[in-house]
């Protein structure tokens, strides 16, 4: 029979309107609009994250890189950038890094570690040096004194050579021969009596003795000519050496003057002095490249094809890969596209006449070069989607140096010629921003990650509802409006936004740190204020923005509601049914969540199969839901099987469920259905239930409580509010209530009710209007209670089973 205290029980469990939402009184604000508040100077909330990150930034030891974890939209990137930029840089040690030509091996460029600002200065100095030498060396070679001295050296050796020619010619005549140049050889011709070459007729008329004499003399003169030729060649080599030495000396004077002047500017920089000495030696050996020659003029068309007339002088340029001359604090670099080459740097190539060539000037820096001495911020989703990028970053951090390499060489069958530049020492703190799933995956499966990222900064999705955080949120609105040229918010709009933040947090005493969702509302409220022609954003614009945001996303929700209205989906909101309860589920559509009721039924009969989860048997049930069903057996066994065994088979089903079921938030609902079926006491169909249960019958909190309540309210409203409808929720979830004003107004008007329950006993009494019942000293329940009827049915099943066994 119905419990005479039914109304009293419901009154005790019913929540008052002021318990259904944390309402913000806008009159507590001292400002009229956010234009009057201070600008935001720090990140709102996240005290734990700030503390951990400050510690991580202070630890300047290998392996203390940071991984910042949290869900999307909590402002992790803005927070990290802000904290790093504000971090006091007391030990800034920055350098300029330059690559220069290795004059001993051009394929192994040297790196220069220079004080800040020296790289740019050295590049300018070397450009000036080359420019000056292009003028001074040719001028030195065209000076009159140089030409006179050079001519004197040439004349000296020419006289020696001419004397040899004259002496050899006279000797030949003494032997009766004339000498004639024929190409590169000297030909001897017998001489006649008149001093002229002997004609053929005369030569043929000579006797044998005369011919032998000519032959003999010819051999002798050939030997003399050979010696003379050797002497002439020796003089020519001496002339060449003398001219080369003279030219070197001429060039050396010009080179030394400029080199000595250059050294004066870098006396306190040993690396530069060492490089300048190498440059001087190469200039002395290759000074001729500064001289215009006929050969160069002939090659000019080829130079035009190459489009690089200055190729010969490139080896004297300075390739500045990192210029910190304008950097005042530690560099903070955000890696927008962290590919392998963008991180580590690369060597570029150019196509010259179909041949791919490169040199030290084609070395390009990566993010790690730019961040060296400071911080590099990387998004986890970006670096782990790029081939070899993570491996390259780890290698650099483990070896503490930046070695530019061509990753194509690791996979290519054919080796390609490239430069192999000196590595650069690496001192950088890496900050990776990602989610907890990626962190756990790396921590468990990548041992290097554990060595390299010892600090984890956890981002919370909520913050305390207190004055400081509310003030910070108001300043956040002001700063955003000012930064992006939005309309300012009046205090009513601020109050609504704070309520919206609590709704996002799902807690009356919390505010959400998912600022991306709050920023969306700020933008959209500003847009509605613009469309309505208002100068300030007010509460009505916030409410309109929320409504329209829901409208854009709730098409699927409306389709389900239409199916309920037309009877395609069976949901009762009036009357009573045995073994049938309205459960509540949340549908997740990504950016939009909504709740809708689902009919849960239970049938019970004699048998030994225990609890049969139809969803599980049809492979449409998740592990958590299966666990919840198993718990029901523990509860019934504890309550009713202390003296005799359970001889029960119970079938539980989510009616018209075709997409699978998971979670245990319906376990209490399922238990209510079973108790109703066993006791044969009907359940009020105007009530819906959510909450999980443990084996002791205690109701446990669940998620999505606001969406679930609002979902059932919408169904009841569509079918017609009766004043007896409502929802049973776990008592722990009261603090999570941030319901829509429409639902609260319905509760205030007595058209809808929300009950908090602590135990299954409390819940079954509200659902059936019948007392649950308490066992006496023998463990027996009163017959007219729910549990008394359940015990009676279970005892009947046991007795029938015994009779069948007999």
Task: Describe this entry's structure for a reader.
There is one protein chain. The chain has 806 residues and is of the alpha/beta class. The chain folds into four domains: 107 residues, Helicase, Ruva Protein, domain 3 (Orthogonal Bundle), CATH 1.10.8.60; 181 residues, 3-Layer(aba) Sandwich (Rossmann fold), CATH 3.40.50; 179 residues, no CATH class; 236 residues, 2-Layer Sandwich (Ribosomal Protein S5, domain 2). The chain is built from 28 helices and 29 strands. It has a seven-stranded mixed β-sheet with strand order 22-23-21-20-25-28-29, with helices on both faces. Helix 5 runs antiparallel to helix 7, helix 18 packs parallel to helix 20 and helix 19 crosses helix 20. 36% of the residues are buried. About 3% of the residues have low confidence.
Short key terms for the protein model shown above:
806 residues; alpha/beta; Helicase, Ruva Protein, domain 3; Rossmann fold; 4 domains; 7-stranded mixed β-sheet; 5-stranded parallel β-sheet; 28 helices; 29 strands; 48% helix; elongated
> Low-confidence segments, ≥5 residues, pLDDT <50?
295-308, 612-622
Radius of gyration: 48 Å
Residues in helices, as a percent range: 40-55%
**Termini Cα gap:** 36 Å
Q: Beta-strand level of the residues, as a percent range?
A: 15-25%
**Major sheet details:** 7 strands, mixed
How many separate domains make up the residues? 4
| CA-based shape | elongated
Q: Averaged pLDDT, please?
A: 84
Find the CATH topology of the largest domain.
Answer: Ribosomal Protein S5, domain 2
Number of strands: 29
């Amino acid at each position: 029979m119905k419990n005479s205290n039914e109304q009293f029980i419901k009154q005790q469990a019913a929540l008052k309107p002021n318990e259904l939402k944390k309402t913000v009184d806008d009159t507590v604000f001292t400002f009229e609009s956010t234009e009057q508040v201070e600008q935001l100077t720090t990140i709102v909330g996240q005290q734990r994250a700030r503390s951990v990150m400050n510690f991580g930034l202070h630890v300047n030891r290998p392996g203390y890189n940071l991984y910042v974890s949290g869900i999307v939209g909590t402002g992790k990137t803005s927070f990290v950038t802000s904290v790093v930029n504000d971090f006091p840089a007391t030990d800034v040690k920055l350098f300029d890094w330059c690559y220069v030509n290795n004059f001993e091996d051009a394929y192994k460029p040297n790196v220069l570690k220079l004080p800040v600002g020296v790289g740019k200065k050295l590049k300018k100095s070397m450009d000036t040096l080359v420019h000056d030498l292009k003028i001074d060396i040719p001028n030195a070679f065209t000076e009159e004194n140089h030409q006179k001295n050079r001519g004197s050296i040439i004349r000296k050796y020419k006289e020696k050579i001419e004397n040899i020619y004259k002496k050899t010619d006279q000797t030949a005549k003494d032997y009766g021969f004339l000498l004639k140049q024929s190409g590169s050889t000297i030909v001897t011709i017998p001489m006649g009596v008149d001093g002229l070459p002997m004609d053929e007729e005369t030569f043929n008329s000579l006797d044998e003795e005369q011919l032998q004499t000519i032959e003999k003399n010819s051999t002798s003169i050939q030997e003399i000519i050979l010696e003379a030729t050797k002497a002439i060649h020796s003089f020519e080599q001496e002339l060449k050496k003398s001219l080369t030495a003279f030219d070197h000396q001429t060039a050396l004077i010009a080179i030394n003057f400029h080199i000595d002047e250059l050294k004066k500017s870098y006396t306190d920089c040993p690396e530069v002095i060492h490089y300048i000495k190498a440059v001087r030696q190469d200039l002395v050996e290759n000074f001729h490249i500064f001289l215009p020659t006929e050969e160069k003029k002939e090659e000019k068309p080829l130079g035009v094809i190459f489009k690089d007339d200055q190729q010969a002088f490139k080896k004297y340029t300075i390739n500045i890969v990192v210029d910190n001359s304008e950097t005042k604090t530690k560099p903070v670099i955000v890696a927008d596209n962290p590919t392998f080459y963008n991180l580590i740097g690369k060597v570029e190539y150019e196509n010259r006449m179909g041949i791919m060539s490169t040199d030290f000037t084609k070395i390009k820096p990566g993010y790690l070069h730019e961040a060296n001495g400071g911080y590099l911020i990387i998004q986890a989703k970006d670096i782990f989607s790029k081939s070899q990028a993570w491996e390259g970053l780890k290698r650099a951090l483990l070896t503490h140096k930046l070695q530019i390499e061509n990753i194509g060489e690791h996979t290519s069958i054919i080796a390609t010629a490239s430069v192999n530049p000196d590595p650069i020492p690496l001192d950088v703190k890496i900050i990776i921003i990602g989610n907890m799933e990626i962190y756990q995956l790396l921590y468990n499966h990548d041992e290097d990650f554990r060595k390299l990222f010892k600090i984890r900064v956890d981002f919370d999705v909520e913050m305390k509802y207190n004055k400081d955080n509310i003030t910070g949120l108001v300043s956040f609105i002001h700063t955003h409006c000012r930064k992006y040229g939005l309309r300012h918010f009046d205090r009513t709009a601020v109050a609504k936004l704070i309520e919206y933040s609590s709704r996002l947090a799902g807690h009356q005493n919390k505010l959400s740190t998912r600022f991306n969702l709050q920023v969306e509302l700020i933008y959209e409220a500003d847009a509605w204020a613009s469309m309505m022609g208002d100068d300030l954003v007010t509460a009505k614009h916030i409410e309109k923005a929320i409504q329209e945001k829901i409208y854009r996303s709730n098409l699927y929700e409306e389709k389900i509601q239409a199916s309920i209205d037309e009877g395609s989906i069976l949901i009762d909101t009036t009357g009573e049914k045995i073994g049938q309860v309205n459960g509540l589920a949340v549908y997740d559509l990504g950016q939009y969540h909504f709740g809708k009721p689902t009919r849960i039924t239970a049938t019970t009969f004699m048998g030994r199969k225990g609890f049969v989860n139809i969803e599980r048997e049809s492979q449409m049930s998740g592990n958590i839901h299966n666990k919840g069903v198993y718990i029901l057996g523990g509860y019934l066994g504890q309550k009713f099987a202390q003296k005799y065994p359970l001889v029960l088979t119970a079938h539980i089903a989510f009616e018209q469920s075709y997409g699978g079921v998971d979670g245990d938030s319906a376990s209490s609902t399922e238990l209510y259905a079973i108790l109703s079926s066993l006791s044969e006491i009907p359940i009020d169909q105007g009530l819906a239930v959510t909450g999980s249960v443990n084996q002791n019958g205690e109701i446990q909190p669940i998620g999505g409580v606001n969406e679930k309540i609002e979902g059932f309210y919408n169904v009841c409203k569509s079918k017609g509010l009766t004043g007896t409808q409502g929802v049973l929720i776990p008592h722990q979830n009261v603090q999570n209530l941030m319901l829509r004003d429409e639902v609260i107004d319905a509760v205030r008007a007595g058209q809808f009710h929300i009950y908090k329950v602590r135990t299954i006993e409390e819940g079954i009494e509200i659902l059936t209007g019948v007392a649950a019942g308490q066992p006496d000293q023998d463990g027996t329940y009163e017959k007219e209670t729910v549990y008394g009827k359940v015990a009676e049915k279970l005892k009947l099943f046991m007795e029938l089973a015994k009779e069948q066994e007999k």
